[in-house]
UniProtKB/TrEMBL annotation:
InterPro entries: Ala_racemase (IPR000821), Ala_racemase_N (IPR001608), PLP-binding_barrel (IPR029066). This is Alanine/ornithine racemase family PLP-dependent enzyme. Keywords: Isomerase, Pyridoxal phosphate. It holds the Pfam family Ala_racemase_N. It comes from Algoriphagus aestuariicola. Residues 7-224 form the Alanine racemase N-terminal domain. The keyword Hydrolase does not apply. Its cofactor is pyridoxal 5'-phosphate. It comes from the Bacteria. Gene3D superfamilies: Alanine racemase.
Length: 356
């Protein structure tokens, strides 16, 4: 069985770097845990860091957080479906919302459960995922803030999630202005401007984050230490908190090119033939992980001389080159990961998860 490892000390270092960064700027933040797919072992590691606020897009994952530590503030970060409103109110202290009818249902459920549910109203700022259009925001807020069992604690936005629209100073100033207008019109303070995700951290690092933006929701930079604009590791952070270790289940010298009539493989691909490779061979390792677990495009061998050739449903093929590099069947190869790769592996029941 392939193994996904979480390095406890590297995770802690990344957490400490982010904590200092936010504290220096007076910004609150919560950790987005959705990549962990509700894995109790890894969620426990998060909470052991001292995290007091966890964000997730799956109610069952927030329920797991509450089972581990009831005091952690849980935040549901996508519009809730009608049938799940009751469970969401039960396990989430806060939710992100952009539909008036949904908030009315949350209000009714909060009253029924005897709770005060906090909401962040999401505002559309150009990426065209969830969010209330700016010109409708005043009327929307007027309807919401009078509802029983509801407390509006913030305005928020998401960027770079669907169409790749990047955060900018101008867009975040726009959100800040909406907050000021609402507070002046209704005489009601809105504590949070929740405009920060991992992709917004570079604005903070370059001192371009507008005043008033005081809440971040961070996952990828915590787990991978990455500046998502420069696509490089932030100084002092680690990019290899997570690693995949996959066992070699076959290692043989084989031709570089397939033989026979070529058709589409199960992924709908047709192999491209480089005729200059006819007659040449290399050592190829087959590993015990495949497309059911992770897409090869999100894997990067620790040994830069290795090349991923492709994958089938449950096997990954790696080109070792002209020699075996001292490897043999039963040994493992290690891979660094991108976010979506780790997400797939964490969602796979066929990959063991271990803390190191």
């Amino acid at each position: 069985m392939a193994v996904l490892t979480l390095n406890r000390e590297k995770l802690r270092t990344n957490y400490q770097v982010l904590t200092r960064l936010f504290e220096e700027r007076g910004v609150d933040w919560g950790v987005v845990s959705k990549m962990l797919c509700g894995n109790k072992l890894f969620l426990q590691e998060l909470i052991n860091l001292g995290i007091t606020e966890v964000h997730d897009s799956r109610i069952s994952n927030l329920a797991m957080v509450k089972r581990i530590k009831r005091e952690v503030q849980t935040v549901y970060i996508k519009p809730v479906s009608k049938k799940n409103v009751g469970k969401m109110v039960e396990f989430a202290d806060v939710s992100l919302n952009s539909e008036l009818e949904t908030i009315r249902m949350i209000s009714a459920e909060s009253v029924l459960q005897g709770k005060n549910h906090k909401i962040i109203i999401m505002v559309e700022t150009g990426d065209l995922r969830e969010g209330v259009m700016g010109e409708q925001l005043i009327d929307f807020y007027e309807e919401v803030f009078q509802l029983p069992g509801i407390e509006v604690i913030g305005l928020g936005t998401n960027l770079n999630c669907l169409n790749g629209v990047m955060p900018s100073t101008d867009k975040l100033i726009q959100l800040s202005l909406y907050k000021q207008i609402i507070e002046l019109k209704f005489g009601h303070e809105i504590p949070w401007l929740s405009a920060g995700t991992s992709v917004t951290i570079p604005l903070m690092l370059s001192h371009q984050l507008p005043q008033g933006i005081n809440h971040f929701r961070v996952g990828e930079t915590l787990y991978f230490g990455v500046d998502l604009v420069k696509e490089e590791i932030i100084e002092g952070m680690h990019g290899d908190v997570f690693e995949l270790h996959a066992e070699i289940i076959e290692l043989q010298e084989k031709p570089l090119l397939p033989t026979g009539v070529l058709g589409s493989n199960p992924r709908g691909e047709i192999a491209q033939i480089d005729e200059s490779l006819y007659g040449k061979t290399s050592f190829r390792a087959i590993l015990d992980v495949g497309l059911l677990d992770v897409s090869p495009e999100y894997l990067f061998p620790k040994d830069p001389e290795l090349e991923i050739l492709g994958a089938s449903s449950d096997m990954l093929i790696v080109n070792l080159g002209i020699d075996q590099k001292g490897l043999k069947v039963g040994e493992t190869l290690t891979f660094n990961l991108k976010y979506m790769g780790a997400l797939g592996l964490l969602n796979s029941d066929y990959v063991e998860k271990i803390v190191v």
